[in-house]
């Protein structure tokens, strides 16, 4: 009986602290034309994690609401990109949870996604501690770069050298370098 009570209590903690949703997404770069995104939200640690599983175009992003930094790990580039979260454009943790629930098992609909474009600084980050323990843990041992948001309309200068992460059809993040060597 004690085991059942302890097990139920642990299960309750697990359910209360985080939720995970799998959302199907179309991707023309993947054989078969589809992939999926998994959105995991941990309210206890104030983070959201989005995994996009699309073959060679797979990526993972971590939004640390506590420290206001985000990191995107691009598997094909074997690198990590860290940037400041734009609280005016990026959804809150609660809003992301609501949107993930709505998007589950649905096709994209409604308004086009909000867009943020970033310029990647080509200098590698040596010390990840200023970005917080969660992002440092995700990017440790991987070449990591800082990106700054490009304000205003997207710059055509960067259009050829960008990696784009579409998150739930609600937010499009483009990370751009100034040359192929940088990114």
Automatic annotation (TrEMBL):
One of its GO terms (cellular component) is Golgi apparatus. It holds the Pfam family BRICHOS. GO terms for biological process: positive regulation of cell division. The keyword Metal-binding does not apply. Keywords: Disulfide bond, Signal. Residues 53-147 form the BRICHOS domain. Residues 1-20 form the signal peptide. It comes from the Eukaryota. This is Gastrokine-1. It comes from Mesocricetus auratus. The gene is Gkn1.
């Amino acid at each position: 009986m004690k085991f059942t009570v302890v097990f139920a209590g642990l299960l309750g903690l697990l359910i209360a602290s985080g939720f995970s949703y799998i959302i199907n997404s179309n991707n023309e770069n993947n054989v078969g034309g589809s992939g999926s995104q998994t959105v995991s939200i941990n309210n206890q640690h104030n983070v959201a994690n989005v995994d996009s599983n699309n073959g060679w175009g797979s990526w993972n992003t971590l939004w640390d609401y506590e420290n206001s930094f985000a990191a995107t790990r691009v598997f094909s580039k074997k690198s990590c990109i860290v940037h400041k979260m734009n609280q005016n454009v990026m959804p809150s943790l609660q809003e992301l949870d609501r949107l993930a629930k709505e998007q589950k098992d649905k096709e994209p609909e409604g308004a086009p996604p909000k867009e943020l474009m970033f310029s990647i600084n080509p200098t590698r980050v040596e010390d990840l501690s200023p970005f917080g323990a969660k992002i440092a843990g995700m990017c440790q041992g991987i070449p990591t770069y800082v990106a700054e948001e490009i304000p205003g309309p997207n710059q055509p200068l960067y259009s050829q050298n960008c990696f784009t992460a579409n998150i739930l059809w609600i937010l499009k993040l483009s990370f751009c370098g100034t040359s192929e060597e940088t990114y």
